[in-house]
Each structure stands twice: as C-alpha cells, then as structure tokens.
Amino acid sequence: MMLRDWFQFMLSIPRRKPMTKTEKFFQWSSLVAYCLGGFSFLAAPELYRIILNLEYHGRSEGYIRLAGLGVVDIGFIFIIVARSNHKADRHGTIFASFLSRVIWIPATGLMLILRDMVPVAFAALFMGLDASLTLGTLIIWCWETDEPSFSAFFTELLTPFRECRGVKTRGSITVMFIIGLIQGIFWYILVVKPDFALKMLALKEFQGYASGYLAVSFYLISIHGLYHVLCANNANLCLAPVSFCYRIFLNFPVLLILFLVDQIERNLFLAVLTFDLIVSFILLCFMIREGRPSENTAVSPSRSPEVESTTF
Predict the structure, then answer these.
(1) How far apart are CA 312 and CA 45, in angstroms?
(2) C-alpha distances out from residue 213 to 41, 49, 70, 180, 306, Å
(3) Percent of the chain scored above 70 by pLDDT?
(4) Rounded distance, CA 73 to CA 80, Å?
(5) Which of 96, 154, 245, 287 is deepest in the core (most CB within 10 A)?
(6) At what angle do helices 92-99 and 210-233 cross, to 10 degrees?
(7) Euclidean distance between CA atoms 187 and 64, whole angstroms
(8) Which of 74, 54, 47 is CA-nearest to residue 133?
(9) What DSSP character marks residue 309?
(10) Cα(131)–Cα(119) distance, rounded to whole angstroms?
(11) What's residue 6's pLDDT?
C-alpha cells in the first residue's frame, strides 16, 4: 500500500492542477527523446554504429549501452520535473535545465571532441538534440505566456537559485541537494580524467573511442547529480521517490545484465551499483522517516507569470 502511494505521489496521480503546455511538451519530448532514445542506445547500439558510422573496439559497445542507461534515467527525471504537483515554481527547473543543455553539455562535448575521445557525429547528436529541445520548450513557453519577456524568463530561471530551498527545506530535499552535489562533482572528475577511472577500477586498456564512451556514461551520471540539485532547489518533493525507483528498479537489473553478458567489467559494475545502492538506502531511510506521502503535501510557490493550463 505504501509503495503504491509513493508511486502515485511520484507521478502526481491524480493531478492536483492541469499541466501547462510547456510542462506537457517537456514531459512528452523527454519520453520520446530521452527514454526511448536512450533505450535504443541501450538495446541496439549496432543501429548507431550504422547511422553515425561509429567504430566499436574493446569495451566500446558496453560503454555505449551504459551511456544509454544514463540517458533513460535523465528522461525519467525530466518527466517528473514536468509532472510534479509538489514543487515551488512550475517552470523553474525546466528553465534551469537550459543552462546545462546549451552551455555545459556543448562545452563538455567540445572538450571530448578536441581530445579525440569521441567521434564528432556522436557528440553532435547529443548537442543537437539538447539544443533543439531547449529551443522548442522556449517557443512553447513564449506562445502560452500572456506577456513573455526576458525579465519573466530569468525570474523563473533564477528563483530556485535565489531561494536555495535545497539547503533551507531540510529532510529528503536537503539530502538530495547534498547527494546531487557530491554526485555531480565526483563523476565529472572521472569525465575529465578517464585514466583515473582506468587505474582506480583496474579496467582493461582503452581501445579506439572506449575512453570517450566511458567518459560520456560518467558524464550522464554527473548530470543526474546536477538535476538533483536543481530539483532540490525548487523543493520538488517527488525527487526522492523517483531517484530511488530508477536506481533500484531500472539501474540495478540493467547493470546486472550488462555485467553478466560481459558488456562491462566487474569493478565498473560494482562501483556504479554500490554508489546507487548507498544513495538508495539513504533515500529510503528518509522516505520512511517522512512517512506515507499525501496529495495535500505542498510547498510554497513563488509568484510566476500567468500561463494557460491544459489537462494531462
């Protein structure tokens, strides 16, 4: 019963208020582009070998699959970002995600290209996808907002940072803020220094673009941490259950399968799995402590520009 309540709370079922067009576009584009797109990388990396003319050497294919899992996780996070009934600002995290999608991701992609760690076509696919979805989201917001302006946009974008609810709210929100900060920094170090992961985890010597594909998978885990911080700053109460669920019900079985079919090394499997299990245990403790969720649970929203709302 409690698990069902958490699941409904996480997906905001039933809805307390209709979703805006911006939220709906963000939700469905995330489902198609990230969840389904990431699953295609996970299940059929050979498809992209043909489309993008990639070359897989050594552990490259397994690392591509691991990166695909990370993309699926981002899709789930984005869906909850859009659907959540329990957040302070409706579009705060959506707009904050623009910063990573048009600045951090292209900068990291360019770094990997210049260091000859990934093919240009592979990096361009992700950079182009993020840029186009960001532009589409912004256009939808301008269309549905009564009086769109740079001032209104930056007000919604900066409010979560200015309020810094991740530190002030306490409970699972603050825990997610701290976890996200640690996750984002630690795994990004391995993006910049994949040779450190090679030595630390005693991995096989990289062949071809294997080091770059592994760096991409680490980068996606780092991005998960960033969005944990952004959601915590927006006091998104659905964050803890979704983080717990994708780590336990998605990452755990997929990582186990990838290890059993020899797509990833044992030490890499244990490192990622151990991190997810530790985070999941911490989250579970706080979720149990805070008790069964209720649809009446709410946070104090900041004032936002009025927009038209639509049903699910």
Answers:
(1) 33
(2) 12, 13, 12, 22, 43
(3) 91
(4) 11
(5) 96
(6) 150
(7) 17
(8) 74
(9) E
(10) 19
(11) 78
**Count helices and strands in the chain by DSSP H and E runs:** 16, 2
Tokens 């909850």 sit on residue: 80
SS3 of 29-98: the string is HHHHHHHHHHHHHHHCHHHHHHHCCCCCCCCHHHHHHHHHHHHHHHHHHHHHHHHCCCCCCCCHHHHHHH
49 in Cβ contact with 242 (< 8 Å): no
Tokens, residue 86: 């329990």
| DSSP 8-state code for residue 209 | T
* Residue ranges per structural domain of the chain: 2-12+20-92+165-291
Listed residue (166, 181, 178) closest to 234, CA to CA: 166
Structure tokens at 164: 């810094």
Residue located via tokens 């990452």: 251
Determine which helix (DSSP H) or strand (DSSP E) holds 20, and give its type and residue range: strand 19-20
Residue 270 vs residues 7, 67, 259, 276: alpha-carbon distances, Å: 27, 16, 9, 10
Token pair 């996480």 is found at 10
pLDDT at 295: 52
Which residue in the block uniquely carries the two structure tokens 């990230």?
34
Other beta carbons within 10 angstroms of residue 197's beta carbon come to 22
pLDDT number for residue 310:
39
